[in-house]
Design goal:
Keywords: Glycosyltransferase, Golgi apparatus, Membrane, Signal-anchor, Transferase, Transmembrane, Transmembrane helix. Its main location: Golgi. Among the domains are: 181 residues, no CATH class; 150 residues, Glycogen Phosphorylase B (Rossmann fold, 3-Layer(aba) Sandwich), CATH 3.40.50.2000. It is built from 17 helices and 13 strands. The structure holds 2-acetamido-2-deoxy-beta-D-glucopyranose (NAG) (6 copies).
């Protein structure tokens, strides 16, 4: 049996058992992509890797510094991994998923097929049917545009490992024994440790993207029915910084970064136009929800959410539980979010959902029911004060029938709603991954924010500035920077419940 003695991990194992039933899993995994459009590569001028700008030094005594290296402290070295760790998986894309053909989704540098605008919700052309598990490919391609790459690893502030960890494990999660599931990770670790870069800091300046939820890489035992691989629990994996679409509240080595959405602008002006539209669009629905119930998860509040939405004339519901549902159509989902003031984001099979990011890109204020769904996850990308851009309603109160969501949301005045929406709209650039074949002019996208976060973290590690706290309190340090009692303790209590 699994030695996962806590509710979340225990619950996770239980939930994943449900997920072992192929039909429901296929539903879960096929997120929505049916439109195939082709797009030739848009080549854009790329600025030189290293920008040297002259600067006059006003300081006396020391000789004036003739040049200042704008990349100083920001250089990244990218490991040149053998193809079996990344590009080979793309060329054999048919083997990537047991349930659906991933080949369309690796097109366009990982963005997937271009979306058409038949329903008039996308306006521009920078929209793609992006798969939620394509982040490793998008991030790797985006890294090729990074302005401060170096081939000299001793200059680098951080070392990027372009391993497609999620695409790898995605092939073996169902029906493969633990040695198969761990094989590529072990192979990678052998390769990394044979490189001189590893020995500099024992891998603590290395980072990589694992574009699935952290629980797919946190197998604690070698029991065959325990879930996932061990990538994040082996000592080498613990030394690296791993970027995942859902991190663990109780571990130090993983950081949540946004799920990819459908929006991939390639110019600042495209982002600004979109933001302007989302500020002005008419939003007839007070709140909305897109999702399916979770009948096999006993403490899920999805039934209550769906029930409350059905009962309200001001709620719009897009149910995902039948085959003809439009909930897998990007334009239906995005169209609904654009016309809603608030978007409900309860947990699903795990804490987080891609839908949160789709909704925020549509300028919809997210309503969370657990702080694990965003606040303790995306600490580099979201404002620390969550009341500025979102609403938290405790899921316990919903489960116990103590709150009516509509009443809570109605209480916000027009001004408060406007302020929250403005905050969401201002965040949009930080939440989307720009087209990785280009680079935005001055706007920072989710990639830029992530790289800054990683570089700061490696600096803190080098400078001995990472506070020494117990792993169990990771979420608290991520949110507040300190330990002690916190009003959310009961949400993350691993011994009770
Ligand atoms: C790499 O950078 C280091 C530190 O700046 C320098 O000493 C070394 O000469 C560089 N190596 C190469 C091959 O340029
Ligand atoms: C795991 O599965 C692989 C491939 O199916 C097989 O070759 C190997 O012997 C299995 N290992 C164990 C320990 O069962
Ligand atoms: C992890 O990093 C520490 C500190 O640099 C180092 O001593 C240790 O050997 C590293 N672990 C592995 C497995 O490389
Ligand atoms: C819930 O579990 C039952 C029994 O294992 C299974 O038959 C059913 O398909 C599951 N429901 C869903 C929605 O997966
Ligand atoms: C957080 O934001 C809310 C809403 O803007 C505001 O009322 C509150 O004072 C802020 N809290 C802190 C600690 O800044
Ligand atoms: C966590 O659970 C334990 C065991 O049920 C309980 O004793 C403790 O008070 C709980 N802590 C919080 C903060 O809820």
């Amino acid at each position: 049996m699994a030695t996962l003695g806590n509710r979340r991990n225990g619950g996770y194992a239980r939930k994943r058992l449900w997920c072992a039933i192929p039909v429901s899993c296929a539903l879960l995994i096929i997120i929505s992509f049916t439109f195939i459009f082709d797009l030739g590569y848009k080549h854009r001028e790329v600025t030189p890797e290293v920008m040297i700008t002259p600067m006059a030094s006003p300081s006396m005594g020391s000789p004036p510094s003739p040049v200042v290296d704008r990349c100083s402290g920001r250089y990244i070295y990218v490991h040149d991994l053998p193809g079996r760790f990344n590009s080979d998986m793309i060329s054999s894309c048919r083997t990537l998923s047991k349930w659906n053909d991933m080949c369309p989704f690796v097109s366009n540098a990982g963005l997937g097929p271009r979306l058409n605008n038949a329903e008039g919700v996308f306006y521009g052309t920078e929209w793609y049917a992006t798969n939620q598990f394509a982040l490793e490919l998008i991030f790797h391609n985006r890294m090729k545009q990074y302005e401060c790459l170096t081939t000299n690893s001793s200059l680098a502030s951080a070392i990027f490992v372009p391993f497609y960890a999620g695409l790898d494990i995605g092939r073996y999660l169902w029906g493969y024994n633990t040695s198969v599931r761990d094989a590529t990770s072990r192979d990678l670790i052998r390769w990394l440790k044979s490189r001189p870069e590893w020995s500099t800091m024992g891998g603590r300046d290395h980072f990589m993207v694992a574009g699935r939820i952290t629980w797919d890489f946190r197998r604690l035992t070698d029991e065959e029915d325990d879930w996932g691989s061990k990538l994040l629990v082996i000592p080498e994996g613990k030394n690296m910084t791993v970027l995942v679409i859902e991190s663990s509240p109780w571990h130090k080595n993983d950081f949540g970064i946004p799920y990819p959405t459908y929006f991939h602008p390639s110019k600042d002006s495209e982002v600004q136009l979109w933001q302007e539209r989302m500020r002005r669009i008419r939003r007839p629905w007070l709140f909305s929800f897109a999702g399916a119930p979770r009948p096999n998860i006993t403490d899920s509040i999805r039934n209550e959410i769906i029930g409350q939405c059905r009962q309200s004339r001001r709620c719009k519901l897009l149910e995902c539980d039948n085959g003809r549902s439009k909930c897998h159509s990007p334009s239906s989902v995005m169209g609904m979010f654009q016309r809603s003031i608030f978007c409900l984001q309860p947990q699903g099979d795990s804490y987080t959902r891609r839908s949160t990011f789709d909704a925020m890109v549509a300028g919809c204020v997210p309503v969370f029911f657990h702080p694990g769904s965003a606040y303790v996850q995306y600490v580099w990308h979201l404002p620390r004060n969550h009341s500025e851009y979102s609403v938290l309603i405790s899921e316990d109160e919903v489960r116990d029938g103590k709150v009516r969501i509509e009443e809570v949301l109605e209480r916000f005045g027009k001004k408060e709603v406007m302020a929250m929406r403005e905050e969401v709209v201002r965040m949009i650039p930080r939440l989307v991954y720009a087209d990785p074949r280009t680079r935005l002019e001055t706007t920072k996208d989710a990639f830029d924010v992530t790289v800054e976060g990683v570089i700061q973290r490696v600096k803190d590690i080098k400078g001995g500035r990472v506070p020494d706290f117990s792993e169990a309190e990771s979420w608290k340090y991520a949110v507040t920077g300190r330990g002690g009692e916190h009003e959310w303790d009961h949400f993350f209590n691993r011994t009770s419940q």
